[in-house]
Amino acid sequence: MTDIQATPLAETDSGLILPRRSFLRGAGTLTLSAAAVAMLAGCESAAAGSSASAADVSILNTALGAELEAIAAYQVGAESGLLQKPVLDLAVQFQGHHKEHADVLAKTVRSLGGTPVDAKKAYDFPVDQLKSQNDVLGFAAGLEKGAVSAYLGAVPLFQNRDLAKAAASILGDEAMHWAVLRNALGQNPVPVAFVS
Amino acid sequence: MPARRTPFGAAGGGPRKGAADRARAALRRAWAGPLAAAVIAAAPPAPATVAPDPARGKQVYERCLACHAVAHDRVGPRHCGLNGRRAGGLSGFEYSDALRAAGFTWNAQTLDRFLADPLGVVPGTTMTYDGIKDDRARRDLVAYLLSLPPCGGR
């Protein structure tokens, strides 16, 4: 193990450090199929001539992993017996959105020649802390807020602008989930003008 | 990070690779550790004008909750006991090849630089996040992360 403080700065001068953009360019640009962009961006006309990189596939797979976990989390909530209608219906609906996100992300990864990540066999959720409907809603709201931040942090990384647009579309959906869950908790549904 | 194949990893099933891609991937794996360490060592720390506040950092941590938790692994690894842990060194968690090869330990300096630009510091990490650019928010987050107790309490 190397402690980075002990790393000689001479490595910097030797040209080992590459700007990230250079690195990404070197990652191998793939031609993004029209179908892939259309699937994710919902806009077939935007697909023509698009390109995506291996780095884009990595971003999509990270997002897919989070979506699969969100699906599992909503399943825990739905089966907890703590959610009453119409909140239960809302949770199931939101879970359905995450399933749609996961499905299209997986298909896009596959169409780009990658291998979509699988759902874990088991997830470790803090079920011992979920004792009321509000506990479940609060947990879900936290996941949704995190999802908004995750997509916000991913959008500027895409080489392919259509994929960035598509990720922003999902971000918008997650933000709506977050707002509705906050409202259900009696909180200000839209507490800030900007998400971060 | 979860059990997944990075575009730069050795596992099969990644994006289509020709000979040039495979060569680049091999080169990248070989450089991943020195690159990460050198990038962190070279970057000056952000100027501190306000003392980092773990309480504010806990609020910033809400941005991380899609992928991380304090006490258990999720899409990303758990953060309890992070201070002094080797990057990519949490037993039982399947990291990207890039993070496993990063060759540094987590502390105030490394966290600050990594969180400012994860992919710039560790190219190939599956933490595909642009980073927290606001110095104060990032320092608060680092203070919170470093304040977390060792794992095992839950």
Description:
The complex is a heterodimer of chains A (196) and B (154). Chain A is mainly alpha-helical. Chain A has one domain: Ferritin, core subunit, four-helix bundle (Ferritin), CATH 1.20.1260.10. In chain A, 59% of the residues lie in helices and 3% in strands. Chain A starts with 9 loop residues before the first helix and ends in a 12-residue tail after the last helix. With 154 residues, chain B is mainly alpha-helical. Chain B has a single domain, classed as Cytochrome Bc1 Complex, Chain D, domain 2 (Orthogonal Bundle). Chain B is built from 6 helices and no strands. In chain B, helix 2 (54-60) crosses helix 6 and helix 4 (108-116) crosses helix 6 (135-147). Chain B is globular, with a radius of gyration of 16 Å. The chains are: A mainly alpha (196), B mainly alpha (154). Chains A and B meet through helix 2, helix 4 and helix 6 of A and helix 1 of B.
Secondary-structure map with pairings?
The complex is a heterodimer of chains A (196) and B (154).
Chain A: H1 10-13, H2 20-26, E1 29-31, H3 34-41, E2 51-53, H4 54-78, H5 87-111, H6 133-154, H7 161-184
Antiparallel strand pairs in A: 1-2
Helix pairs in contact in A: 3-5, 4-5, 4-6, 5-7, 6-7
Chain B: H1 19-42, H2 54-60, H3 97-100, H4 108-116, H5 118-121, H6 135-147
Helix pairs in contact in B: 2-6, 4-6
